[in-house]
Specification:
The complex is a heterodimer. Chain A is of the alpha+beta class. Chain A has 2 domains: 74 residues, no CATH class; 68 residues. Chain A is built from 5 helices and 5 strands. The mean pLDDT of chain A is 92. By secondary structure, chain B is mainly beta. Classes of the chains: A alpha+beta, B mainly beta. Strand 2 of chain A pairs antiparallel with strand 15 of chain B, so a sheet runs across the interface.
């Protein structure tokens, strides 16, 4: 069944997927469902376009970076990099807190080596979102493979 | 509502029960239900069986011994149904002058048709209806054949004669069937609920929907579409909207898809915002604390259900 791709003011897309419910008449067709679903297009949609399901990317890893390009839906790489950095930052935040706890514990134990290791791990985590491999990635697949969190 | 016949219910009425007409006689192994009574001469209350009493007006007798196939008014309150115990039923009228039925409902007593007894001129044993009987010369044989009986009868089996005594129930559609208002009031105990009105009861879900990550619906009720707005962000759009946004939503996702391999996730689902015609829901996995929400895609199977009032 076709989808209605709606471009939002922020450049992203919302995809209206028509449905046929159990309480619809037995003769209710996909074409009628598509027509009915047009009433569900968000009011702030800048434009709409009907696309086949096959036009959607197979991976939803960077779903929030999807944009409409002609009749196709593609991943906007600058947006995808931003999303990827944010995910790394959120994962790192948990580990940074753990590294800080390790550093305090090492300080209490007068263990300079452990303090240095904890500090080095924290610095690596802080730098992780800025890993140059993120900027160098040119495809969603390459970007998704970049995982600098130690 | 007096209903005689077996056709469909008149417009605006609904049928409850069988559609056999009042007065119909049938043979059963036992009265099939309370709307049929056995024709054994029993007394019935006129007030309890008004339609049968009305039907009986054309078939009354004062002497039910002579006319056991008719009804009898016992007194102001009761009447007796025909008493067919042990009798055979015969078609009225005649096929020729030698085969004439009695009048309607009148008992026709035992009788033996013309036949010949062959006897010899001297005493001995002869044959009477296939049975050897002794006889004396010149004497009329008045004995009965064996096995001895008190009646003449064909081979037969016994069943219970019954009459359709209570009408098929006809209920006015406007009063006997629950309306939307009746369903929403959820109080009446004397209304029938039809499939089209069942959904208006407060305890009935007005919307349900099972859908996947992409918003593709597996099964739904009252859903026109699902909008995939982003990662773990969907809007369920209703075919028939609620009266307002004061309805209840339950949302659940089953299997959460982690973005980063090996990440342990806890699920967080949130009915985010509601409009009369749609509800936006979020579903994410997060690591550690809720401050780290939105690090994952939503569930592969999302389940949405809503209760409330519809116009």
């Amino acid at each position: 069944m076709k989808r209605i791709v709606c471009t939002r003011p922020d450049g992203g897309i919302s995809i209206v997927v028509p449905a046929i419910s159990v309480d619809d008449p037995p003769s209710f067709t996909e074409a009628e469902a598509l027509q009915r679903a047009r009433a569900n297009v968000p009011s702030d949609a800048v434009s709409t376009r009907d696309v086949e399901a096959s036009a959607l990317p197979s991976s939803r890893v960077f779903r929030d970076a999807w944009v409409l390009s002609g009749a196709s839906i593609v991943v906007d790489m600058p947006r995808a990099r931003t999303i990827h950095r944010e995910r790394i930052r959120q994962r790192a935040a948990v580990l940074i807190a753990r590294a800080d706890a390790d550093w305090i514990s090492a300080e209490q134990n007068h263990d300079n080596a452990a303090k240095a290791a904890a500090l080095a791990r924290k610095l690596a985590l802080v730098a992780a979102p800025n890993d140059p491999a993120i900027a160098a990635a040119t495809t969603p697949e390459q970007l998704a493979a970049v995982d600098p969190v130690p | 509502m007096n209903y005689v016949g077996n056709g469909p219910a008149p417009s605006g009425l609904v049928l409850v029960g069988d559609t056999n007409p009042i007065g119909m006689i049938g043979y059963f192994h036992a009265p099939p239900n309370a709307s049929w009574v056995q024709l054994n001469g029993q007394a019935l209350l006129k007030a309890s069986y008004p339609d049968l009493w009305t039907w009986a007006q054309g078939f009354l007798t004062a002497d039910q011994v002579a006319n056991p196939g008719l009804y009898k008014s016992i007194d102001g309150a009761t009447f007796a149904v025909p008493k067919l115990d042990g009798t055979f039923v015969r078609s009225t009228g005649q096929i020729d002058a030698n085969h004439v039925a009695s009048a309607l409902g009148v008992l026709q007593a035992d009788a033996v048709g013309p036949h010949v007894h062959t006897q010899g001129a001297t005493a001995g044993t002869g044959v009477n209806s296939g049975v050897n009987v002794p006889y004396a010369a010149g004497v009329t044989n008045t004995g009965n054949p064996t096995p001895a009986t008190t009646e003449t009868r064909p081979a037969n089996v016994a069943l219970v004669p019954c009459v359709k005594a209570l009408r098929t129930l006809l209920m006015p559609a406007s009063g006997g069937v629950a309306s939307q208002a009746d369903q929403e009031a959820a109080a009446a105990l004397d209304k029938l609920v039809t499939p089209g009105a069942q959904k208006f009861h407060p305890s009935a879900a007005k919307v349900f929907c099972a859908f996947d990550l992409s918003g593709v619906v597996a099964r739904a009720f009252n859903v026109s579409s699902v909008t995939d707005t982003g990662t773990g962000d969907w809007t369920v759009n209703f075919t028939t909207p609620f009266s307002d946004a004061n309805y209840t939503v339950a949302f659940q996702m089953t299997t959460v898809v982690p973005i980063a391999a090996g990440t342990s996730l806890t699920t967080l689902t949130t009915p985010h915002s509601k409009l009369a015609g749609s509800a936006r829901v979020w579903g994410h996995g997060y690591t550690g604390t809720t401050n780290n929400a939105f690090v994952s895609e939503g569930g592969t199977s999302n389940n949405f259900i809503a209760f409330g009032d519809q116009p």
